Amino acid sequence: MKPLRLKNCQRDIQASRDAAGVPHLQAANWLDAVYGLGFLHAIDRGTQMLFSRSVAQGTAAADISGSSELLETDHFFRRLGLGRLGESEAEALSENTREQLQAYCQGVNDGIAGVGRTLPIWATGFQITPWQPSSVLLVGQLLSFGGLAVSQMQNERLLIDLIHAGASEEGLKELFTPHLDDVDFELLRQVKMASQLSDDALEVLIDLPRLAGSNAWAVRPQRSASGGAMLASDPHLEINRLPAIWYEAVVRYGDRYVMGATLPGCPLFAVARTERLAWGVTYMKGDTVDFFVEDCRRTDDGVWQYRREQEWEDFTVREEIIQRKGGASETLLAYENPQGVLDSNPDERGPGYHLSIAWTGNNAGSGAAIASWLDVLSAEDAAAGMEIVRECTQPTLCWVFADREGHIGLQSCGRFPIRGGGHTGLTPIPAWDPANHWQGFHPTSILPRIYDPPEGFVATANENINPPGGPMFCTQILPGYRKRRIDERLQQLDHATLNDMQSLQYDLISLQASDLVALFLPHLPEGKLKERLSGWNFSFHPTSQEAPLFQSLYRNVLVEIFGHEEGIGWRRMVYLCSRAGFSGMVVAAIDRLLHQEKSCWWRVRDKGSMIHDAALRVDADAKITWADVNYFHFTDRYFGSHQVGRLFGFNSRQYPMPGHHATPFQGHVLQTAKRESTFAPSYHFVTDLSTDWAATNMPGGPSESRFSRYYNIDVPRWFSGEYKKLHGQPEPDSPPA
């Protein structure tokens, strides 16, 4: 262990780094410990925190760079009012929670003062202001909306775009049944659509902690070789932009400890364990954001109004001045009412139907979520932890727990609107009918939960978690390939070990491929394609030559069946199926439909003949491997896209990405003209509650400095599947897990 020099530290704490650079913090009590965590975040990830806060509060174009994409994201977040409730929410926190946040913020500010101006701070001319409790809440808002709810919003907007573009009404209704059964297609085609976010601006959002998919499971003692409960968790995010999203830490205070993945800017442990309890989280994919259709008009004196039944009311107009580094400031007018905020300025598109956006996180009380993250650290067992996190208002998550006594559980959380008129929330509905408005929020007592299931394990992987006959918390249903594979493997393990848990986290078998190859084979022409896919084990290992063959066939089938101009259109279909991890709602709906015998999509042409014709366009002699098509480069999130970054080696060599969107190791890469985006395990964590250690690895390291040996120190472990040990109790250095 290497002691850390804590310049400007104002409390009695000690810190050191292990061989992997993970900081180990020792404090007398929790308030000193949370101060120390803030201090460590500041010295290792200060730039990441400060830049994230600027993005969240919509001042990035003034603080960081006057680039067009940052200006666009400033407009986006300021229109939505992401940071408007920060101060009032901080004031509304309990005294206990506020005391902890103040200690954390003191640690952040003392750490930043001790470090001084980092290279990115100096290069951008960024002006540092103190970290405050409202800053913590703002980073939480950024995670909840920019990293999660925005993906729901973008998929809902994608559906509106398909309707606007004239895609087959009958075909879309069948594809997304029953969500579109009562949708007024003609009304939606009349809506004046705001411009979509540009690719550059979307990539700023992708750069946020965005749980595109994750895995977590727990095993009871009767299925464990050690006799202790075990937990495994691996949240999936973009992983090719360094520094890594997560910051590992081991924190000891008094006779207690907590260790795992923390989020710089917040005193929370997303995936972690204490001496009594372990937890991991996955994105529930809960629908907490809705579009409404507003009927708008402008009065003779220039006032914009919205209709409620036959009456007209004035919008509340909020004026936002957006500064731009090196350029003139811009004025944004946000038009609001109790149902939401218009997605554009009606002056630019004129009277008529406009979309408005509503998000539950913009309601009072959302800031209290941080209390759940703090309180769970002191939970004594799984049942207590589940009760605490059930009240977490945002983001929508599935928490998996395992405790020292052998209990396991799953608890979902989030604030879900009670939607009026029986609507699901997937498509916009008229706001002029008060019956369509939100009618409050569902009680947390009805949120899905599982405790000590008889099968001896519990797992979640972004599957459909809607209760039978209950509210539709999730509207963008994924097919559950990863969940099925995890359940399948856990069912086979009567005496599971940590090595089994690690192997499952690196599992590359696709049940999507297994299902669809069985569907495709009877219709394939005799020859090499059929022979090669018949003998494939459905692994998306980088060396596999059948994986790219299947992917080529799959995309050709989708374009052949759904890409005609009376359907979705071939250009849009190519776009969608090349972004399977990003437009999962559409691809998942298509996968379900492909297994049906009858459909309007193959009413004119037989499904089997279309699969046959698609196969004729596949090069069955191709010898390329999955690594040849599914690869990526690590790059620095501050300098990687700039000439100075390329000059000083901020971009890595090409790496193969194992897996794809339907394998437990979700390795999805999106190649665009300007950059690569990835979704993959951002942290691997497994632990046995009969011990006091955890095995981990991550695609990165503790430091945000490209010139630090701890910048990407864990990357070789992440690729090889090797795990390191984190010890809750002080122990000497030990060999890999």
Automatic annotation (TrEMBL):
Active-site residues, record numbering mapped to chain: 214 (nucleophile)
GO biological process terms on file: antibiotic biosynthetic process
Positions that bind Ca(2+): 156, 287, 289-290
Pfam family, one: Penicil_amidase
Any one Gene Ontology molecular-function term assigned to this protein's record: metal ion binding
The EC number(s) this enzyme carries: 3.5.1.97
InterPro entries the record matches: Ntn_hydrolases_N, Pen/GL7ACA/AHL_acylase, Penicillin_amidase_A-knob, Penicillin_amidase_dom1, Penicillin_amidase_N_B-knob, S45
UniProt KW keywords: Calcium, Hydrolase, Metal-binding, Zymogen
Domain of life assignment: Bacteria
Cofactor note: Binds 1 Ca(2+) ion per dimer.
Iron recorded as keyword: no
Top-rank EC class of the record's enzyme: hydrolase
Cofactor(s) needed by this chain: Ca(2+)
Protein family (similarity comment): Belongs to the peptidase S45 family.
Protein name (database record): Acyl-homoserine lactone acylase QuiP
Lineage, highest ranks first: Bacteria, Pseudomonadati, Planctomycetota, Planctomycetia, Pirellulales
